[in-house]
Amino acid sequence: MGPLYHGAGARRLSIGPGLWFNPAMARMTLKDRWVLVTGASSGLGREIARDVASRHGGNLILVARRGDRLRELADELAGRHNVQARPIAADLSNARDVERVFEDSRAIGPVYGAVLNAGITHFGAHQELPWEGFESLLATNVTATVKFVHHLVPHMLDHDLGGGIMLVTSMTGLVPTPYQTAYSASKAFLTAFGEGLYHELSDQNVSLTTFAPGGIATEMTEKTGLQEVFGNSPQIMEAPRCARLAVDAMVARRYLAVPGLFNQFQLFLPRLGPRKLATGVVAGVYRKAMRKNP
Ligand SMILES: NC(=O)c1ccc[n+]([C@@H]2O[C@H](COP(=O)([O-])OP(=O)(O)OC[C@H]3O[C@@H](n4cnc5c(N)ncnc54)[C@H](OP(=O)(O)O)[C@@H]3O)[C@@H](O)[C@H]2O)c1
What we know:
The protein is an alpha/beta fold. 48% of the residues lie in helices and 16% in strands. It has helices at residues 43-56, 67-81, 95-108, 131-159, 181-200, 219-224, 227-230, 239-251, 261-268, 275-292; strands at residues 13-16, 19-21, 34-38, 59-64, 85-89, 111-116, 163-168, 206-211, 216-217, 237-238, 256-257. Strand 1 (13-16) and strand 2 form a beta hairpin. The longest helix is centred in the middle third of the chain and has 29 residues, at 131-159. Residues 39-45, 64-66, 90-93, 117-120, 140, 168, 170, 213, 215-216, 218-221 line the site of NADP nicotinamide-adenine-dinucleotide phosphate.
């Protein structure tokens, strides 16, 4: 029988806007256990994998399309931190690949932790996003994530290790974000999904954390031009710092975690006025960035 960490009725203490901490939960212990990280070939996912290995001694199942990068990372983690790391190259916009990744992970595992982090965005007018691009965004951000959860929860319950899943969403899932409209909507889905499941699983032996970062300096922000949105604002976070906060949130089995005081403050502001005003301000910031980076 794994540890009992959050029974129904456990007292929850708010420590910030939208942030919850449950003092009744036992923390996850990643050492020598298998943690699946999707989107591990770059940015936040790669840093999360490094953090799991370096600070927690966890073994890693690394998933993304670029297998060469995953193999390099697996060698790095095994060499530097004496953990086991297995790369699985897969295109998660393809449902069959998601099934294959789960089957391979189950054979390697049991999977104790899962960071469902792979994601893509579209920065620009929604009308400029081709239909195939929208389908790919939805399949990668939403369908693959839900499919993993669908398989992972029974797997984790069967093994009764007291594992945990973390969904990497975004602040754009909490505040609708024009010019990242489809992405923002996909993250809103994941946020609602994660927050709902947290409660459904609250008397079972697996936890569900929703992690909603603001801007992070990664390939996503670089390649799409989103960097312009953040400019020199303190909102843009370095990936290793964000990863550390993400892993802390999962290990502590947090309900919803928004990393960084500046981001938490930004989320608080829209609560003071009408939603339309808040999303209008966001639209203005994005339009300005798009003029600089057409
Ligand atoms: N950067 C930000 O400002 C920011 C803010 C809030 C939330 N986030 C979220 O953080 C997560 C990580 O993003 P990031 O900023 O680290 O971006 P990133 O550097 O572009 O990393 C995205 C990762 O997802 C993988 N990926 C994308 N499409 C995939 C597919 N079809 N199949 C398998 N893997 C796929 C990529 O690997 P391959 O290309 O090798 O497949 C890559 O490893 C995403 O969910 C993103 O929405 C980012």
